[in-house]
Amino acid sequence: MGGAKNSALPLMFACLLTDEVCRLSNVPEVADIETAARLLEGLGARVERPAAGEMEIDCSAVDQWVAPYDLVRKMRASFVALGPLLARFGRARVSWPGGCAIGSRPVDVHIAGLSRLGAAIEQEHGYVEAQAPKLVGGHIILELPSVGATENVMMAAVAAEGVTRLENAAREPEIIDLADALVKMGAVVRGAGSSVIEIEGVAKLGAMEHAVATDRIVAGTYLVAGAISGGEVEVSAARAEHLQSPLEVLEAAGAVVERKTDSVSLRMDGRPRPFEVATAAYPGFPTDLQAQFMALACLADGESRIDETIFENRFMHVQELARMGADIGLAGNRALVKGRERLSGAPVMATDLRASVSLVLAGLAAEGETEVLRVYHLDRGYESLESNLRRLGADIRREKA
Ligand code: EPU
Questions:
Q1: Which residues make Cβ contacts (< 8 Å) with residue 319, sequence separation at least 6?
Q2: At 235, which helix (H) or strand (E)?
């Protein structure tokens, strides 16, 4: 089990805060990480991978503060470069990320947070322009606990003058990982993982060496793979404490889950029982596992209920699962899934990262062959998915189009 892409991305952008060389390990080899590396290189950084999973980032020569459209449009997480660029140059221009497949995903919470630190922010020609000759710590209450906004504010506040108190902060493990790395760089950050984070600005940040925390969403995906195929799986390096809510749902579905110090294992006999899930900010049930659990619900012995409360349009897998014989009724942000004894393999289309993996999971349990098209979505966040699933006994191969 590799490092979390959603931890590694902000950690890579945090390297913009220093002139010294930073070293990250446990960096997953996925497309989004490559996009972030291209973005940093475009700004003038040197990014190298001295060995598998390792990354060396030297931002000493960075002299650009513009994150261009062609990269931000590929990956919304690039917007998190805004905070560190602003801290470094007193100005930053980052392409407006716009909508994406899973919802409109505005950036108003990021902008409100950075404005409270003294930044003047405007939107012009498709770009967000921020200027702050001097950032000053402030009291910020986020309108909602946005993960990206929390990261942007943290990375600007570490270099601001004075103390920042950030309330209603996101509490995801990725926020703790970022705070740990910033502290290694010399920042003063307290309370990450709770909804109030306090940051004391410092004049200069230095190098860090940091191992990216393991990917709880990838771990959860493999556990669902075990559950959906009525088998056994042990996910090494998975941290049960980051997966509390999904593990409880798996147990409600009838899985036997064993939480070990540095792994989680699961055994499932027979059909899953129906279950109820409502996505929520951490420590609630992660939206990034909703599609995978829906695939599981399609095979349950009864009706499951799945509410998506984070994104307004994250049910695109529903019509593809229906092509495989799933019986799913949609009403607004609620899906009612009537489980069937079997799904039938079919050609289906991936629409986003998590939707695409849910189709692969459904394909594992379906009778006959399932062909998932547009698998490049998978490559944004899953490393060695086919070979890992093959090790679990799946018959899966990638075909070049
Ligand atoms: N939102 C606003 N205004 C803002 C920011 C967010 O209304 O200024 C809304 C969003 O539209 C969304 C909700 O708040 O409805 C939560 O968004 P958040 O900002 O927390 O999400 P994010 O930082 O853009 C990260 C992950 C996503 C994950 C979400 C929620 C990264 C790089 N991305 O996105 O991961 O779904 O948190 O947990 O960390 C994925 O990996 O597949 C993925 C989409």
A1: none
A2: strand 232-236
Span from the CA of 153 to the centroid of ligand 1 (angstroms): 15
User: What number of CA atoms fall less than 13 Å from residue 126's CA on the CB side?
Assistant: 10
Name the 3-class secondary structure at 51: coil
Q: Is 106 in the pocket of ligand 1 (CB under 6 A)?
A: yes
**pLDDT of the residue at 102:** 67
β-pair partners for 265: 234, 258
Helices H / strands E in the chain, number of each: 14, 21
Q: Give pLDDT tens digits for 331-376.
A: 999 999 999 999 999 999 999 999 999 999 999 999 999 999 999 9
Question: Which residues fall within 8 angstroms of residue 63, CB to CB, at 6 or more apart?
Answer: 43, 44
Given a cut of 60, whether residue 26 has pLDDT beyond it is yes
**379, two tokens:** 């490559």
The predicted-structure confidence for 298-319, as pLDDT tens digits, reads as follows: 999 999 999 999 998 899 999 9
| Contact in structure between 236 and 170 (CB atoms under 8 Å) | no
* Nearest CA, atom 2, ligand 1: 106
In whole angstroms, give the CA distance from residue 37 to residue 40: 5
pTM: 0.97
Tokens of 337: 């899934």
Task: Calculate how far, in angstroms, residue 374's C-alpha sits from the geometric centre of ligand 1.
Answer: 23
HEC secondary structure over 284-314: CECHHHHHHHHHHHCCCCCEEEEECCCCCCC
**Atom nearest to 6 CA in ligand 1:** 39
Active site annotation includes 100:
yes
C-alpha neighbours within 13 Å on the C-beta side of residue 179: 23
